[in-house]
From TrEMBL:
Biological-process GO terms, alphabetical: branched-chain amino acid catabolic process; response to nutrient
Protein name: 3-methyl-2-oxobutanoate dehydrogenase (2-methylpropanoyl-transferring)
Catalytic activity: N(6)-[(R)-lipoyl]-L-lysyl-[protein] + 3-methyl-2-oxobutanoate + H(+) = N(6)-[(R)-S(8)-2-methylpropanoyldihydrolipoyl]-L-lysyl-[protein] + CO2
EC number: 1.2.4.4
Database matches in PANTHER family: 2-OXOISOVALERATE DEHYDROGENASE SUBUNIT BETA, MITOCHONDRIAL (PTHR42980:SF1), 2-OXOISOVALERATE DEHYDROGENASE SUBUNIT BETA-RELATED (PTHR42980)
Cofactor dependency: thiamine diphosphate
Amino acid sequence: MNLFQSITSALDNALAKDPTAVVFGEDVAFGGVFRCTVGLRDKYGKDRVFNTPLCEQGIVGFGIGVAVAGATAIAEIQFADYIFPAFDQIVNEAAKYRYRSGDLFNCGNLTIRAPWGCVGHGALYHSQSPEAFFAHCPGIKIVIPRSPLQAKGLLLSCIEDKNPCIFFEPKILYRAAVEQVPVEPYNIPLSQAEVLQTGSDVTLVAWGTQVHVIKEVAAMAQEKLGVSCEVIDLRTILPWDAETVCK
């Protein structure tokens, strides 16, 4: 599978396993602009995979309500650049729901997916990487995968996690490369970085698309400068794996 197919596979698994799970967003019913939800409406019906109005605040607000009511909400923001109208709902409502109610209520079953990062021709409204804005907000988890295999396992972990999660998908990687990805569900733990390459001189930390750039840099540093680089894929931006990085 390539990355967008692994996302489709993860959503398929989630919808099959959990009868309360719903997938919604702008244009998801016909498959979405990147085809990540293709075929899911035909398989699971229009009550479980459906389009929303063009209103990001409404999409996330609706998702919070669905999650508080006990169902599993999987919301799509069509591009990460357009997540900002929903910033208040994410930071002031979703992230604080459990705290403000003294653990009587929570919206932990909410996952927000969004295509993320630059593609080289997206200009300013289709190339942003807004994870830093959310990385300072306790109560939400932020995850960015580097590959198809990682994407499916991490997305399923986000959907099953009992905290609201934002899952940013590097759009330039959607069709970049294929990997062997299991059709059946599997999980990759959140908040666990992965050491991709050991090294003795310097530690390089990256996530998403930049992991591939940093691996090239590490190879160049070794070849041209004799510098031994350790390469770490952070994977989860919040809460990040400080222990692995410090070690």
